[in-house]
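Narrative of activities, Objective 1.

The group set out to show that a structural description can be obtained from nothing but a protein's sequence at a throughput compatible with the screening campaign. Below is one input-output pair from the validation batch, recorded exactly as produced.
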Amino acid sequence: MTRILFIAPGDNSHTWKWVGWFGKKYPGEIDLIPYQAPAPAPMLPGVRILEPHIPPFRIASVASWTEIGHVRRIVHDINPRLLHVLWAYGSGTYGVRADFHPTILSPWGSEITIFPNRQGLKGAIQRRLILEALNKADYLTATSEFLADAINELAPGKMRPEIFPYGVDTSIFDPARIDNPYEFEWPEGCPSGADAVTVGFFKALKPKYGPEFLVEAIAEASKAVPGLRCVMTGSGELRDSLIELAKSLGVASRILFPGRIPYEDMPRALASIDIFAMPSRYEELGVAALEASSMKKPVIITRKWGMKEVAVDGETGWFIEPGDVKSLAGYIVNLAGDPALRATLGENGRRFVQENYEFEKIIQAADRYCTEIIERTK
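Output recorded for this entry:
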């Protein structure tokens, strides 16, 4: 019997991919306690979803600390062969305080790279809880070499985490299967027709992802590329200021802000662009760039943290430094004027993803890892 209990964010596509895969392989043996938000049952066939979801952890909330005991009782009542907790903070705090063995803890990023360095009392408490989660877990995993190094720097006494990137299902992110690319409703006056070249930004409109750099680069590059336009999907606190920035730079008619695109529509959305740009200030991996590469799109991304692992400079796209608007604009101009180069980089990108980040290979390795732990602790 393989019974695995996951504690993971309920509204996250990575949860749906990972937990959903286990649910399909081991129907009836996989349980999920959703964290922070409900989990959609259609995305998780074969998984028993335990409702209601765990509310977001709040340091100053008595209810959050009380919830720890509730989660502990659920875990021990189910008594799985393995507890797998995704995120080191929040769900990690609930999960490792269940005092269940064996437990795998899989940090995803900011809770390792950002939270522990916050100032003040809240930052100190967060750091302590994250360290507790790392040290109490029996096993650790990471999504990139960079994140594994960061975990070891934070918890040097632990064995180096096993690395399982998010991965990309290249059978879904495959341009050959897309016969109806996503149709965006472009603003009046936006370039269109055969001469239009579309740059895509498929991230949240938040400071971490540097969307303002792309708006500025579009303004600069459009001086040399009359047909240039850009779609910036997603939601976030910068949306209104980005719209104002586009207006002030005279490119409001060239940039579309359509809001969040459902994850299941992402392959079609990527099929509708020519260039993918991700000028993030930092990221622990950068799976969006991998999805774009799988769709044969050249990528322009930041040479920062784990993003260095998801592209090959000059072969699948180009790296820029954070905030380097001039280089970003220059690469956009180069790619906009050279369809053959775009095609070459795109072909290289898909091959790179298939060789290094194919989801099925990664998840099967993760399955073997979990099975070995279960067998070891019989």
